[in-house]
Amino acid sequence: MSLPDRTAPASHPQQATFLLRRVVIQDYKSIRHCEVELGPLTFLVGRNGSGKSNFLDALRFVADSLRTSLDQAIRSRVSPDDIRHQRSGLAVLIDLNFSLPDQSTVTYEILIISFSSRSFKVNSERLRITAESGELLAYYKVTSGKVTKSSIENPPASQADRLYLVSASGLPEFRRAYDALTAMTFYDFNPEAMRSIQAPDTGESLRRDGSNVASVVARLNDEQPELLDRITQYIGAIVPGVEKIESISLGPSETLKFTQMTGDPLAPHEFYLWNMSDGTLRALGSLVAAFQFAGRGEMVGLVAIEEPENSLHPAATAVLMGAFQEAATRTQILITSHSPDLLDKIDLDTDALLAVALRDGVTNIAPIDKASLSVIRRQLYTPGELLRMDQLEPDQEDLARQSSSTPRSEKKG
After folding, report:
1. Most exposed: 15, 58, 132, 232, by fewest CB within 10 Å?
2. pLDDT value at position 394?
């Protein structure tokens, strides 16, 4: 199974909307406290049930709260009791640090207090935008529903059911931060939903379950055909002979048709989404998610995918890894995985690896321990081999650093 040539990729839209650099999460679901750095391509690795998905969901919670409302984001996760750590107090803190294309840095923090299974409030919300030179460009702080600090002379009023950034996004100083956070996308593909005949939509963004993949492919074909060509090349490396992917109409609905070359060049084989295996559908969804674009020639800011290697032949995971590494030069990619075959293709010089483990009901997330890292760098074992031996563990020194760090919500200012 040969990989597509990555030495001279076709032209692509410009660099991603942002790069999420640091994530601090406190008391969200099974995560008591974590403070980790992310790279353009980051893998969260651990056993099933270790809390990898909870890390992604904390990020998705922020995006959902900004796209809809805080109340809807919480209710979609059942209740405030279901998002806070059960052994902690009543607060949930999420603090994100990210960079924008102009190299300015944004720090965005929300602290939510839960009073009961039905009652909650935003205790504080703050945002700071700093230029590359260190100059403070814009900021605000909201405490208990009131704007207490702002770089804007007459800031908009806050709304009880929404994060303040929604109101502030109407101002040019804060719009880019809002756009960056709402451009984060999260995927847990459902092969059955992808196989089903689909009602057409605008194809602006691939749905979380992949159920509108035909519409997204149609949009790529119309607006960025070179990206669709790249996806097709990677699918052709997974399913040999595939040379064309196209969205076709079936009455008022649509699906995808694949053209596969056979021994007779005059009689290529054609097949459809419903003919594909679960693993190939997940791979297709992952490729479309990684190479899609948000509009105006911009790539999606962050693409987070849950276990894209599920049901995929081990040999095909190398293809998927190559695609992620290429896409990560333009879009930040965040992957959860427990696949040794996928991890065997990690390049620790460019790819980030975070180990996730559950201990006494608490999720620990940190870079892999120094002993394992040394073994990998000396080429004694690969990351995949260490995972097979259950030897990929979070670094204890880093966990100690995290536990001793002061949460931003307890700092002044």
Report:
1. 132
2. 95
